[in-house]
């Protein structure tokens, strides 16, 4: 009994420390990797501290995303240091090759975006694409929720693969921060490859639609403007589509329709280069390809956690 209590107390301590670490990361002298390690330990602690249930599954996913958000934002805690390490040129070179001499974003904005005497003119297509972009914050998690309800046996694998894409993508933002299309004209250092002006249509429309509420809303949802390569918007949406297609053809068709629409929106709105999307797709396919090879190791880790959970709750 004493051993069980000690294990549960330690596990709850990991949950508390992991939940607090992202909030305290700017107020400690510890290296950022320490705070991130503690944050990512929180879901594991929860899986020992409480018995397996649907509620615990959802809470563990929430703690994982809380750790991911910190990993996404942390590189921008020191903006000047991050900008000195930022890559500007290679996505421009790659996209000019993909666009046969002109950036796909520039081609799309010149063909579809409209401005009149009073400023931007917003078509129905513009609005649909902006809202498609905003909906992304719910899509990967809604897909997992659907899988949890529709086919619970598939949920653990689906969650692991989805959050592997999130976490591996975030590591790229630490190692190689890369500017999106709209950023070079604002922050590029001298000598950066010249790029025509790219409008950030999502922000322009957001300021119009949300008015005074846009600033606070964007400050919550944003946080790192130099986290463009790979595009996790596209990578996680593609993963959601692939996982939904395993559950049923209609769910898969809806998932792919959303992912393709989002991909077009990200390039047209100026949020991502086309090469960012290709890198995001490659990341998703890599996770899918390597998943079976990692299954054995993941089962062993899961077995160890389950064994600790059993000991932690014996005789309760």
How do the strands line up in the largest sheet? 1-2
Order of secondary-structure elements: HHHHHHEEHHHHHHHHH
Output the structural class: mainly alpha
**Mean model confidence by pLDDT:** 90
Shape: globular
Distinct helical segment count: 15
Taking all Cα atoms into account, the compactness measure Rg is 21 Å
Cα distance, first to last residue? 8 Å
The number of strands is 2
> How much helical structure, as a percent, in the residues?
over 70%
Tell me what you see in this structure:
The chain has 316 residues and is mainly α. The chain is built from 15 helices and two strands. It has a two-stranded antiparallel sheet. A hairpin with a 2-residue loop joins strand 1 and strand 2. Helix 2 packs across helix 15 and helix 9 crosses helix 15. The longest helix has 39 residues. It starts with a helix and ends with a helix.
Provide the descriptors you would attach to this structure in a database record.
316 residues, mainly alpha, two-stranded antiparallel ribbon, globular
Task: Give the arrangement of secondary structure elements.
Elements (H helix, E strand, L loop, with lengths): L1 H23 L7 H18 L4 H20 L5 H6 L4 H10 L5 H9 L1 E3 L2 E3 L2 H12 L3 H12 L4 H21 L8 H4 L13 H10 L3 H8 L10 H16 L1 H20 L5 H39 L4
Antiparallel strand pairs: 1-2
Helix pairs in contact: 1-2, 1-3, 1-15, 2-3, 2-15, 3-9, 7-11, 7-14, 8-9, 8-13, 9-13, 9-15, 13-14, 13-15
């Amino acid at each position: 009994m004493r051993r069980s209590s000690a294990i549960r107390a330690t596990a709850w301590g990991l949950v508390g420390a992991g939940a607090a670490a992202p909030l305290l990361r700017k107020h400690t002298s510890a290296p950022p990797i320490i705070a991130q390690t503690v944050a990512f330990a929180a879901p594991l602690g929860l899986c020992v501290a409480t018995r397996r249930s649907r509620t615990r599954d959802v809470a563990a996913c929430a703690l994982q995303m809380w750790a991911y958000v910190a990993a996404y934002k942390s590189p921008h805690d020191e903006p000047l240091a991050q900008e000195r390490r930022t890559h500007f040129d290679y996505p421009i070179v790659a996209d000019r090759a993909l666009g046969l001499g002109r950036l796909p974003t520039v081609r799309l904005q010149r063909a579809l975006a409209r401005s009149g005497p009073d400023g931007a003119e917003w078509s129905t297509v513009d609005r649909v694409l902006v809202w498609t972009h905003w909906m992304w914050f719910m899509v990967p998690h809604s897909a997992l929720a659907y899988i949890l309800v529709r086919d619970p046996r598939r949920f653990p694998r689906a969650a692991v693969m989805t959050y592997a894409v999130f976490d591996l993508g975030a590591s790229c933002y630490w190692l190689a921060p890369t500017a999106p299309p709209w950023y070079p004209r604002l922050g590029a250092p001298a000598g950066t490859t010249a790029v025509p002006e790219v409008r950030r249509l999502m922000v322009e429309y957001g300021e119009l639609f949300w008015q005074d509420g846009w600033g606070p809303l964007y400050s919550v949802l944003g946080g790192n403007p130099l986290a463009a390569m790979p595009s996790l918007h596209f990578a996680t949406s593609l993963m959601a589509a692939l996982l939904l297609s395993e559950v049923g053809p209609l769910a898969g068709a809806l998932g792919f329709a959303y992912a393709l629409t989002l991909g077009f929106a990200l390039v047209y709105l100026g949020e991502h280069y086309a090469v960012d999307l290709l890198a995001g797709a490659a990341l998703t396919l890599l996770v899918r390809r390597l998943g079976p090879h990692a299954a054995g190791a993941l089962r062993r880790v899961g077995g160890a956690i389950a064994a600790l959970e059993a000991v932690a709750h014996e005789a309760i």
